[in-house]
Amino acid sequence: MSCPYAKPSQMDANGVRDDRVVTTSNGFPINEPFATQRVGEHGPLLLQDNALLDNLAHFNRERIPERNPHAHGSGAFGYFEVTHDITDICGSAMFDTIGKRTKTLTRFSTVGGEKGSADTVRDPRGFATKFYTEEGNLDWVYNATPVFFIRDPSKFPAFIHTQKRNPQTNLKDADVFWDYLTQPANQVAVHQLCILFSDRGIPQTYRNMNGYSGHTYKWSNKNGDWHYVQVHLKTDQGVKNYTAEEAAQIAGQNPDICHQDLFENIEKGNAPTWTVYIQTMTEEESKKLPFSVFDLTKVWPQSQFPLRPVGKLCLNENPQNFFAQVEQAAFAPSNTVPYQEASADPVLQGRLFAYADAQRYRLGPNYHQIPVNCPYASKFFNPMIRDGPMNVNGNFGSEPNYFSDKTNYQFVQQSRPIQQHQEVWNGPAVPYHWVTEAGDIDFVQATDLYRKVLSKQDGAQGRLAHNIAIHAANCKSVDMQKRVVSMFSRVDEQLGKNIADEISAINSTNGKPKL
Ligand code: HEM
């Protein structure tokens, strides 16, 4: 038998009969698909009818747990092409030559809704890309928004719960949503909320939105020089969004509009592309920032840290099978390649644990053997990672399951010097979270967005107030509505007033007091 783990992974279905003879799952040819074995013509069925049992039993096991969060999504294959030399910043092989292409898989998603929920909801969009590089699989598990709601990973489950259904009513609950987000400690979300409730909160299609690392990453070149890095993927199709009213109507008419748009455009050869840029920052520069470089609720000003082009992401191939290639895809920030590291951002550090753990539960411990997840461009070999449910790659055959003295193992040393003088962390183990309350600094970028960016877009400030107001008007509690107004008044007094006026107008039609 040839060495099974030396074979490249197959992306296509295997084990299918060429003659298309229909069989049970153990290969027994079925002569009549809908016949059942029974006693006499009208009698009860026989337990020996394996074709029927096989059919019914497998149907009962078709579903796997949906992702929690980001259950609803669409995906496509493509490639990343290097257009600019950044080897002074990053030594990863995928960047080593201009014109080099790396095969990719991208999955777009919404966050809070269930697998079958509508595409045009107000929610951040996930933008996750797997690069099948010669140094292993690299996942950029990004969002279509440059910041996030939290900066303490311990808050993630509570935050996501507030975006999902109320445990008693099983309804989405505006009071719960705003109760969490207006608590003083959680108002660090205000910058992300201003983006979420702006026009960008409902992209028209997945092709018409940008992607952002959000987090600070740490990239180094082959000499060991390193930078903090943020990545931006800017859509070449232009940013286009729906208003709240358009989106609500479309959600009723065609809830899968973004999925359909992506599939059909790729099918007709209209492959969407994104220009990939990086922002870079030295450690010295990071010390002069008015906020922590590890604070996920802040953007790096582009005037100070300009975008530098790197390459293009192009999505030009639809999956052949959605379940096999998109539902079973497993993206994780911990899947990285040499010279691209996580920074000490606590949310990113928390994510380094969360994804592979979720996938061991959702897909099983051998999820990396599912063809779409295999590092097929680099191959996988580790005699210690063996056995487990659904082991299907030959399990390394007769290879010893420890590092035997009799075998020549190879351990590749990266060419960069060991980073012993970088970011030296020292100190006792302490129960740390940033600060108990969001401070003025946490409102600065939200205010800048409102006053300096939205003011230049026709009607955008008004739409922000409107979108917040129509959401918060759903709160049963008027006190909760007041908390919403008070938080956004801290971004800009006029914004708070506009929200209050519109909530009051809606309240008066619902028999509720004005604010
Ligand atoms: C502590 C914070 C976070 C935790 C614990 C967390 C956890 C998770 C988990 C468990 C999943 C489902 C994974 C699966 O079943 O395959 C997921 C999906 C996802 N998360 Fe996060 N997340 C966090 C923050 C973020 C942030 C800040 C971003 C973006 C910058 C992000 C982007 C995504 C995306 C794009 C997906 C969907 C991936 C796919 O398409 O399969 N998450 N997250």
TrEMBL record:
Q: Tell me which residues this entry annotates as catalytic.
A: H70, N143
Which residues are in the Catalase core domain?
Answer: 23-411
Q: What class of enzyme is it?
A: oxidoreductase
Q: List required co-factors.
A: heme
- Kindly give the InterPro entries that the UniProt entry links to this protein: Catalase, Catalase_AS, Catalase_clade1/3, Catalase_core, Catalase_haem_BS, Catalase_immune_responsive, Catalase_sf
Enzyme nomenclature, EC number? 1.11.1.6
Designated name of the protein: Catalase
Species assigned in the record = Maudiozyma humilis
